[in-house]
Design a protein that fits this description.
Elements lengths: L13 E2 L17 E2 L5 E2 L23 E4 L4 E4 L3 H9 L2 E4 L10 E7 L1 H8 L7 H13 L1 H4 E10 L5 H14 L2 E8 L2 E7 L10 H12 L1 H6 L1 E3 L21 E3 L5 E3 L8 E7 L4 H5 L1 H9 L5 E7 L6 H10 L5 E3 L3 H6 L9 E6 L9 E2 L4 H12 L14
């Protein structure tokens, strides 16, 4: 794991279960077939007729799992024990498995309470030396702090050799059990998992959770879906958020809001967060202070990805940190145009008055000063007319 600043060390690589890769219909004529390994594969990516490896219907639009057209892999997590750990934030999901931005599958890993205590012991204003010391301790004892649970991945066969080598090395180094699911074209698909968690530094309350995870490995395997990956011509650019689009939702306090929220300002910071995300909560105080000192013609709003499920907790977090900015609840359109293309929380976008996204998103938490610098950087990108059309990447 690379060194990251302050409390952003964890959470950056992990996405919440509800903010995975884009869904949607594709070409017609899917004919699922059973291969020599006994698993069902899909002949094309037709969203409304996909089946999982056990032959049951797969719902690519479900929010209880993962579905990526570029990866050629999906999963609908059905087990309640597993889902509860995901919601709690103990079981984290990683999508960026290769060296590029292309998705090739997913990995779930368990983060122990001891690991969270270690990272949460770092003060927000801790010097770099202190952060590095904690990072080194984590890296030296990673097998005691985290448990690689399962991984489902597509290994590209004809192209992307660097990614193929990187993913293969990662899979073999982290997982003791690797099952081949099948082959589509020149691409190979695998399901990898671990059962032995004896080296973990666990609280007594965690032992049952880990045993439940191990007991449900076969269930997780049955719930995965394999299909031909979409071949993108422009790498990750196709999945990039270019415009927020139209939406019609409400804030946590029930106020109606739509895309016009951007119209009055040159730039609006959009902070995407979740109540279960410690790095998200760690930066809330800075965001609250930033909101009160925003430069002219700028604004700050947030989107709480689990605000509908945890409205009281979301309000409590915002109130505790004196955050007076609007907190939006995601609707179907925001899920489709924004949240399904976000790789992790917290993520912050900078949006112009027309809803265009300026520059790259910021993944991970930042200080008030660093966000202020990024805000001025985006302001400098806007032309005299206030349009980002020529400078948005």
């Amino acid at each position: 794991m690379k060194r990251l600043a302050k409390k952003a060390i964890i959470g950056i690589l992990a996405a919440s279960i509800c903010i995975t890769s884009a869904t949607g219909c594709a070409s017609k004529g899917n004919k699922a077939y059973k291969n020599d390994h006994g698993y069902y594969l899909n002949s094309v990516d037709q969203a409304n007729s996909l089946v999982d490896v056990s032959g049951d219907r797969f719902d690519s639009s479900a929010d209880n799992g993962y579905y990526s057209k570029s990866a050629g892999v999906g999963i609908n997590v059905k087990n309640k024990d597993v889902l509860s750990l995901i919601k709690k934030g103990s079981l984290l999901q990683v999508n960026s498995l290769g060296v590029s931005d292309t998705e090739y599958g997913f990995e779930y890993y368990y983060m122990t309470n001891a690991a969270y205590r270690l990272f949460n012991s770092i003060p927000n204003d801790a010097p770099d030396e202190e952060v590095e010391a904690v990072q080194k301790k984590y890296d030296a004892n990673i097998n005691k702090y985290t448990f690689p649970y399962v991984m489902t991945v597509r290994i590209p066969g004809d192209k992307d050799k660097k990614d193929a080598d990187s993913i293969t090395k990662r899979m073999k180094s982290k997982f003791s059990h690797i099952d081949e699911i099948g082959k589509i074209g020149s691409d190979h698909y695998y399901f990898a998992y671990n059962k032995d968690y004896q080296d973990l530094k666990l609280d007594k309350s965690e032992e049952k959770s880990l045993q439940n995870l191990v007991n449900n490995i076969e269930t997780m395997k049955k719930d995965i879906c394999i299909f031909p990956a979409e071949k993108a011509d422009s790498g990750s650019a196709k999945n990039r958020i270019q415009n927020i689009g139209q939406f019609n939702t409400k804030t946590l306090d029930g106020t109606a809001v739509n895309q016009d929220v951007f119209a009055k300002n040159k730039i609006t910071m959009v902070n995407i967060w979740a109540t279960y995300c410690d790095p998200c909560k760690a930066e809330m105080k800075d965001l609250g202070e930033l909101y009160k000192s925003l430069p002219k013609d700028t604004d700050l709003i947030s989107i709480c990805v689990d605000g509908k499920e945890e409205p009281d907790l979301a309000k409590k977090i915002l109130k505790k940190n004196n955050c007076d900015f609007k907190a939006l609840l995601p609707d179907d359109k925001l899920n489709k145009t924004v949240l399904n293309k976000v790789s992790g929380v917290p993520t912050t976008l900078f949006v112009d008055s027309n809803g265009n996204v300026l520059g790259d998103p910021i993944v991970g938490s930042r200080s008030k000063d660093k966000y202020t610098k990024e805000l001025y950087k985006r302001l400098s990108m806007i032309s005299a007319e206030g349009s980002a059309s020529e400078v948005a990447k």
